[in-house]
Amino acid sequence: MDAVGVDALAFTSSSTVYGEAPRPTPEDFAPLEPISPYGAGKLAEEGLLSTYAHSHGIQSWVFRFANIVGPGLRGAVIPDFIEKLRADPETLVILGDGRQEKSYMHVEDCVDAICHVVEHAEGPLTTCNLGTRTTTSVDRIADIVSDVLGVDPDYEYTGGDRGWTGDVPRMRLSVEKLAGLGWEPAQFSDDAVRQAAEELSAEL
């Protein structure tokens, strides 16, 4: 960046830096104790950005994402459910117990929020949560995807309170800082999931 004269950076971090934290989780929550290598990597990268923002003149905006969904999404719960139900519309295997509950934000809202914060936040380093004020359970995602595909499967669960090692089973970010900058998400979490399911069903 220094060699080519770029002095500002918007970084896509993750809510996973918080680990299992009280909800809604604000940006100043501490200590940050991620429970996955992914979350630990994002936190380490945030530390480097802080160093370059405060000591080397690289203005930085750090965005801690909720679950971002929309066209092109792969390797996540919505496309996974679509592919499973296309293969077997009678039965859907769900990781964990289906009660995992998180905030889902459509990628259009996400990009709009990033642009708004970059335009309105001041200072060498701004850290901002990006998410919705509502959450959606895995069971509810299964219901929405099934409805979009026009199927009515039985659900089978792999068990446990989380989908995989390092999964945070419940997450909702505080978006008060984002609201203070003058931006609110256009959709609730369920609406973002439905729009993404409709878009992805046309792709997959």
Structure in words:
With 204 residues, the protein is an alpha/beta fold. A three-stranded parallel sheet has the order 1-2-7, with helices on both faces. The mean pLDDT is 97.
As a percent range, the share of strand residues is 15-25%
Cα radius of gyration in angstroms: 18 Å
Q: What is the tally of helical segments?
A: 6
For the largest sheet, list the strands in their spatial order. 1-2-7
The H/E string reads EHEEHEEEHEEHEHH
Q: Shape, please?
A: elongated
Kindly state the number of beta strands: 9
What do the pLDDT scores average to? Answer: 97
Query: Uncertain runs with pLDDT below 50, 5 residues or more?
Result: none
**Helical residues, percent:** 25-40%
- Straight-line N-to-C gap: 37 Å
What can be said about the biggest beta sheet? 3 strands, parallel
Q: Name the structural class.
A: alpha/beta
Q: Nutshell version of this structure?
A:
With 204 residues, the chain is of the alpha/beta class.
Element layout with pairings:
Layout (H helix, E strand, L loop, with lengths): L7 E7 L22 H19 L3 E7 L1 E3 L7 H11 L3 E4 L6 E2 L1 E3 H14 L4 E6 L5 E2 H12 L4 E4 L18 H5 L8 H15 L1
Parallel strand pairs: 1-2, 2-7, 3-6, 4-9
Antiparallel strand pairs: 5-8
Helix pairs in contact: 2-4, 4-6
